[in-house]
């Protein structure tokens, strides 16, 4: 596999608490525009750097932690976790705020000041031609043994006006807009209330449900990710740890085992399929950490943990490869898949820290190894941006890497 370590420019981002052996929530974000690299930091700072020199252009403070970024027309839209669950649009040229929306108005104010109780804007989908932004927000609360989710999906016009809302008592995790821009798929990770469908496909113009799908499994785990391509919808199922492709009407075209419950020694282990990406008749799924059916701790590994596997339009295997660590998100464009790989807390080997690139048709295409962990990435043509965060494993006592944005290429 090709490796290019000398083609990335680095810009330090200051101090941040080191990650530990286990994965943390999304703390940073990055987006590429025509001439800038935009970084969202955990303290609320959003900075636009020149795409060539990485010199700062402008900087602003967003209300909350800016974990989600999107570009709509000439505006940067920022969403994140905070008391108000704020979505705001800022001019790409200057950083001046255009409009603001507080999702807490719909999902409710936090019951406590704990991080996971704060409203979170966690996913965007963009209709670039119409200038429409779709955003998903959620809030979690727990009262004793009772766990509740409150969520909303918005269709937002270019001026921030709400065209429609779709509200449920489940936890959305992903959005995907169909190629024809007429349907929006919403993947729900947790369904603990009256809403019990892992996937809802909405009419993009009205917000009315078109069809639903669910793995039909016990428990509240449902779906990890969704991806529309060529009229079909690919789904990474948390419920049964399989991958699916659904027809335009929601019927199942095919399904494959990804990290299903498997006996390893005297334990039964599984891993969640956390990400999926479909394009041009092919689909790739990415799995995460190993968990035992009984309890949470194990020293063993599921044979398909931390893997990316690609399939053709009929569900036949094309290729698979190891991503070696936890992947927070995927950055994709055409057949390019960029995986920012973080720590593998059961192996704790700094050599797993890398940004890895795959070609959906051909497989592994390159990697960029770094000292810290890669937690966010963006890709545009031949340019890749990544966020490095420092990590200190609990049984080592050594800090690896720094908080920085890196921009360059990573192609074979």
Keywords:
412 residues; mainly beta; Quinoprotein_ADH-like_sf; four-stranded antiparallel beta sheet; Pyrrolo-quinoline quinone repeat domain-containing protein; five-stranded antiparallel beta sheet; WD40/YVTN_repeat-like_dom_sf; disordered N terminus; 1 helix
Compact summary:
The chain is an all-beta fold and 412 residues long.
What do you see in this structure?
- Residues 26-137, 198-324 form the Pyrrolo-quinoline quinone repeat domain.
- This is Pyrrolo-quinoline quinone repeat domain-containing protein.
- It comes from Natronococcus occultus SP4.
- This protein is mainly β and 412 residues long.
- Helix content is 1%, strand content 54%.
- The protein contains one helix and 35 strands.
- The chain has one helix spanning 104-107, and strands at 8-12, 29-32, 36-40, 45-50, 56-61, 65-72, 75-81, 86-91, 97-102, 120-127, 132-143, 146-156, 162-168, 171-177, 183-190, 199-203, 209-213, 223-229, 232-237, 242-246, 252-257, 262-264, 267-279, 282-292, 307-311, 317-322, 331-333, 336-341, 354-359, 363-369, 373-380, 383-389, 391-392, 399-400, 404-408.
- The chain has a five-stranded antiparallel beta sheet, with no helix packed on it.
- The longest helix has 4 residues, at 104-107.
- The radius of gyration is 20 Å and the shape is globular.
- Residues 1-6 have low confidence and may be disordered.
């Amino acid at each position: 596999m090709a490796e290019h370590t000398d083609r990335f420019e680095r810009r330090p981002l200051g101090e941040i608490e080191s990650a530990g052996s286990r994965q943390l929530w999304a703390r940073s974000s990055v987006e590429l525009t025509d001439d800038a690299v935009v970084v969202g930091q955990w303290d609320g700072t959003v900075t636009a750097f020149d795409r060539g020199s990485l010199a700062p252009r402008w900087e602003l403070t967003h209300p909350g932690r800016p974990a989600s970024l999107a570009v709509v027309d000439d505006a940067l839209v920022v969403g994140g976790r905070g008391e108000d669950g704020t979505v705001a649009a800022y001019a790409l040229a200057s950083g001046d705020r255009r409009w603001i929306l507080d999702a807490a108005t719909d999902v409710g104010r936090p019951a406590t000041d704990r991080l996971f109780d704060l409203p979170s804007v966690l996913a965007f989908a963009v209709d670039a031609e119409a200038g429409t932004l779709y955003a998903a927000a959620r809030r979690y609360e727990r009262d004793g043994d009772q766990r509740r989710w409150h969520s909303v999906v918005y269709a937002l016009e270019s001026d921030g006006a709400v065209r429609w809302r779709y509200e449920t008592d489940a936890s959305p995790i992903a959005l995907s807009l169909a190629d024809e821009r007429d349907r929006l798929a919403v993947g729900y990770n947790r369904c603990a209330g009256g809403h019990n469908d892992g996937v809802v496909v909405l009419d993009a113009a009205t917000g009315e449900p078109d069809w639903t799908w669910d793995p039909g499994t016990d428990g509240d785990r449902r779906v990890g990710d969704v991806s529309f391509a060529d009229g079909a919808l690919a789904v990474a199922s948390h419920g049964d740890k399989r991958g699916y492709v659904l027809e335009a009407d929601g019927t199942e075209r095919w399904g494959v085992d990804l990290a299903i419950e498997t006996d390893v020694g005297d334990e039964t282990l599984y891993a969640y399929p956390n990400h999926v990406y479909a394009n041009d008749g092919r689909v790739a799924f990415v799995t995460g950490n190993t968990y035992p059916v009984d309890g949470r701790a194990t020293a063993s590994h599921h044979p398909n943990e931390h893997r990316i596997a690609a399939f053709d339009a009929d569900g036949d295997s094309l290729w698979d490869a190891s991503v070696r660590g936890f992947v927070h998100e995927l950055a994709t464009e055409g057949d390019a898949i960029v995986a920012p790989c973080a720590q593998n807390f059961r192996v704790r080997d700094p050599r797993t820290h890398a940004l890895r690139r795959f070609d959906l048709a051909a497989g592994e295409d390159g990697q960029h190894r770094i000292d810290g962990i890669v937690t966010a990435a963006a890709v545009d043509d031949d340019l890749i941006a990544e966020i490095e965060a420092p990590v200190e494993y609990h049984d080592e006592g050594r800090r690896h890497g720094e908080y920085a944005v890196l921009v360059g290429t990573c192609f074979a």
